[in-house]
Amino acid sequence: FDSSVGRGDFITRIGVGQVIKGWDEGVTTMKVGEKATLDITSDYAYGERGFTGHIPPRADLIFDVELKHVE
Q1: What's the topology of domain 1-71?
Q2: Which InterPro entries does the record associate with it (predicted)?
Q3: Is 42 left (phi over 0), alpha (psi -120 to 50) or beta?
Q4: Which pLDDT tens digit goes with each residue over 6-42?
C-alpha cells in the first residue's frame, strides 16, 4: 500500500510514455474535476519485471485519482 496524500499533486504528461500504460489510457478518458478509480492489471502496469523495491512482478494496481488540470 502507498499513498500520495499529503505529498502534493502528481504532475505528468499523459500519452508520451512517462507513466504506466494504465495511467496513459485511463486518465485520457477523464474530464477536469472528475474523480476515478483506475484498476490496472499488471500488463498495463509493471508486468513481469515489477518495480524493484516497490512493486512485485505481476502486481495489479489500484489508483484513486482526481484530474485537476489539463494544458
Answers
A1: Chitinase A; domain 3 (3.10.50)
A2: FKBP-type_PPIase, PPIase_dom_sf, PPIase_FKBP_dom
A3: alpha
A4: 788 888 899 899 999 999 999 999 999 999 999 999 9
